[in-house]
Design goal:
alpha+beta, 34% helix
C-alpha cells in the first residue's frame, strides 16, 4: 500500500504570482513615466511635465526654469516703487476734506512752538529710558518725522481752517524701519501717558498721550492724540493734535491735524480713508479720482 505524500502549500505558485504582479506594476510605472530611464517615480515625471507645460510657461507665478511658484518675498520685491510723481499724485486735496479747509503753500516749514521743549526726566522715576522716547516724540512732532526719514520718494501738503491745521504726508520707507516706527508709536500711550516739558524760558508744559483709533485701512495703522497744555503770550493755551499713520506695503501716509481749537475727527478720518485709497490707486498704476468716493 502506497502512502500519499502529505500536502504542502503551493509556495512556488504564490511566489510566481507575486513576481508576475510586480512585473506588471513596473511595466505600468514605466508607461506612465513616459520612458524616462532616470526617473524611477511619478514625482520626478510630474515635475518634468509641469516644467514643460505651456500653461506653466504662461503662468505669472511660475519660474521659467523649474515651473515652481515664486516665493512671497520675490513677489513683494516686484511691487511697484513709489515715484516722486506718484507721491504727488497720491496727495489729498481740498475735495477730500469737509468744511472750509484751504490748501496752503509752505507746509513743509510748519512746526508748532508749543511742542518744543525738554522733557523733565524727574517725571520718570523708575523708567528713565521712557524720557528719551517722549523727547523723540516732541522732536518728531516739530519736524514732522514720526516715521523717520523716508528712504525713497515723498510728498506733503497742508491745509488750514481757523486756528487748526492738517498736514498730510506720503512717502516710501525701508520696510524694517517702517515696522519699527509703527511699533514705537504703539508704545507711547504707556511710556508717555503724561509728562512735563520745559521750554527755553523755563515755562512748564504738561503733555498727555493717548491712543486714538484709526479706520481699518491699509496693511497696518496706528493713531495717537497728543495734548500740550501751557501758556502762550501769558495766556493759558492747549494744543491738541491727532496723529494717524497707515502703512501700505513699504509706503505710508501720515496725517497730523488739530490746533488750539481742538481736533476734527471727521476730517482726520476722511484724510486717512481717501489718502489710503489714493496711494493704493497710484501703486496699482491708476490715477486717483478727482472727486472722493465717500461723497455723494
Amino acid at each position: 500500500m502506497h502512502r500519499r505524500p502529505p500536502s504542502r502549500p503551493a509556495r512556488p505558485v504564490r511566489v510566481l504570482a507575486s513576481v508576475l504582479a510586480a512585473g506588471a506594476l513596473l511595466t505600468c510605472a514605466a508607461c506612465s513615466g513616459g520612458g524616462d530611464s532616470e526617473g524611477s517615480g511619478a514625482d520626478r515625471g510630474s515635475a518634468s511635465d509641469v516644467a514643460a507645460s505651456p500653461l506653466a510657461a504662461e503662468s505669472p507665478l511660475a519660474s521659467p526654469r523649474t515651473g515652481k511658484s515664486a516665493s512671497p518675498r520675490a513677489m513683494k520685491s516686484a511691487a511697484p516703487a513709489l515715484t516722486p510723481a506718484g507721491a504727488k499724485s497720491a496727495l489729498i486735496t481740498e475735495a477730500d476734506l469737509e468744511d472750509d479747509w484751504t490748501q496752503v503753500k509752505g507746509a513743509a516749514g510748519w512746526g508748532d512752538k508749543l511742542v518744543i521743549g525738554k522733557v523733565d526726566v524727574a517725571d520718570f522715576l523708575t523708567a528713565k529710558t521712557n524720557a528719551a522716547d517722549c523727547q523723540k516724540l516732541l522732536d518728531a512732532l516739530y519736524d514732522d518725522t514720526l516715521l523717520g526719514k523716508p528712504s525713497g520718494a515723498s510728498a506733503l501738503t497742508g491745509f488750514e481752517q481757523g486756528d487748526s491745521r492738517l498736514l498730510y504726508q506720503v512717502a516710501a520707507y525701508d520696510r524694517a524701519k517702517l515696522g519699527a516706527s509703527l511699533n514705537w508709536l504703539k508704545t507711547l500711550p504707556v511710556k508717555c501717558d503724561q509728562f512735563t516739558a520745559t521750554d527755553s524760558k523755563g515755562g512748564h508744559r504738561t503733555v498727555q498721550v493717548i491712543e486714538d483709533p484709526v479706520s481699518s485701512v491699509g496693511d497696518a495703522r496706528q493713531g495717537l492724540q497728543v495734548t500740550v497744555t501751557g501758556t502762550s503770550g501769558n495766556e493759558p493755551t492747549t494744543l491738541t493734535l491727532q496723529l494717524a499713520v497707515v502703512r501700505v506695503g513699504t509706503d505710508a501716509i501720515t496725517v497730523t491735524s488739530g490746533g488750539l481749537d481742538g481736533t476734527e475727527t471727521d476730517t482726520t478720518k476722511a484724510a486717512v480713508q481717501d489718502g489710503t485709497s489714493h496711494l493704493k490707486d497710484v501703486l496699482a498704476g491708476r490715477t486717483p479720482p478727482a472727486q472722493p468716493n465717500n461723497l455723494d
